[in-house]
Design goal:
341 residues, alpha+beta, BirA Bifunctional Protein, domain 2, seven-stranded mixed sheet, three-stranded antiparallel sheet, 38% helix, rod-shaped, binds zinc ion
Length: 341
């Protein structure tokens, strides 16, 4: 019996060197340590060992049990930790983890592109304030007290500090024109991009805020044909080389005369389509010669200086350009929408 125990011990020691993975480890366990394994068979045989030898055989059998368990535990440790990346060189042929690259929002891209077009002809960028006072948003722009746009239904008022100090969220970028003219002497040539706010019901065509871009040029002898030439240059740079532009008479309190500007529909090459309502023209914004009353408010002499101003909505301009059916898509941050631009 003692000899048998010694044989199994040396056999197990030899076989421990063959354990390479979970499969061979399990084979080792089944052969020696399982219920029907060699160790249990020996314990069964031990029951019939005669009394004098029991002490010696029992000791030897216990040593075997300990050494088999030790081999098993050590090999198990090695096989399991062998699977950890620390013990393995990385497989450089595996495909990498893909990261989504962030990009500029479509609105920011458009503002960048438009300001760059105007910067090429000498316009500077001014941003203005989103919180304005009533004076800069309305009064200084020749918008009288009774004008409907001053109504609470259209304008978000913030708080009031007495009769002449009502604060509001600017309803257009035009108060920035006043702030620039208050601080600088002509010539003035600025472009003002930014957010504006209107108290409007949310729909596919309108939101409580959107983006505008505004331009102002004041100098001696600035004429209506300068306005037309500037807008024509912009439309060709932004919408397409061969597109015609046109001006239609309109009204704004802060310009006189005023006009709406249209560009030929670039979607149907002016043939007429659903987007341009079969007119062949798309409206891009309002413009006009600065009203002399506005010059008086900022201390410019209307007999010495003339100027023009124009403004357009960014979202309204981009919607037909990219076939975007709903203005809300710009702000829902749906990655499927955003990554197209
Ligand atoms: Zn069209």
């Amino acid at each position: 019996m003692l000899e048998k125990i010694e044989n199994i011990k040396s056999e197990a020691n030899l076989e421990s060197g063959l354990i390479k993975d979970e499969k061979t480890l399990e084979e080792f366990r089944l052969k020696y340590l399982s219920r029907n394994g060699l160790l249990n068979t020996l314990f069964e045989e031990f029951k019939s060992v005669d009394r004098e030898s029991k002490g010696k055989v029992g000791k030897s059998l216990n040593e075997l049990k300990i050494s088999l368990q030790k081999i098993y535990d050590e090999q198990k440790e090695k096989t399991v930790s062998g699977k950890s990346p620390d013990n393995e060189s990385p497989d450089i042929t595996l495909p990498g983890v893909k990261f989504n690259k962030g990009t500029k929002h479509l609105i920011s891209q458009a503002i960048d592109e438009i300001t760059e077009i105007f910067q090429r002809i000498g316009f500077q960028v001014y941003e203005g304030f989103e919180i304005e006072d009533e004076y800069h948003n309305f009064d200084a722009l020749n918008t009288p007290d009774y004008h409907p746009s001053r109504d609470m239904q259209d304008t978000f008022y913030l708080h009031s500090e007495g009769k002449d100090k009502n604060y509001l969220l600017r309803t257009h970028t035009s108060p920035a024109q006043i702030r620039v003219m208050e601080k600088t002497k002509p010539p003035v040539r600025v472009i003002v991009p930014g957010k504006v706010y209107r108290n409007e019901a949310v729909s596919s065509r309108s939101l409580a805020f959107f983006h505008q871009i505004e331009g102002l040029y004041v100098d001696r002898k600035v004429s209506f044909s300068d306005l037309k030439g500037t807008l024509d240059y912009f439309a060709k740079e932004f919408f397409g080389e061969n597109l015609k532009t046109r001006l239609r008479p309109s009204f704004f309190p802060f310009t006189e005369p005023s006009a709406e500007m249209d560009v030929e529909c670039y979607l149907c090459s002016a043939k007429g389509c659903r987007i341009c309502k079969y007119t062949g023209w798309l409206e891009i914004g309002g413009c006009g010669m600065v009203n002399p009353d506005v010059f008086k408010m900022v201390g410019y002499d209307p007999d010495e200086y003339t100027g023009f101003a124009f403004g357009m909505g960014i979202e309204r301009t981009l919607m037909p350009k990219y076939g975007i059916p709903d203005i809300r898509l710009f702000y829902e941050n749906d990655i499927r929408f955003l990554k197209q631009f």
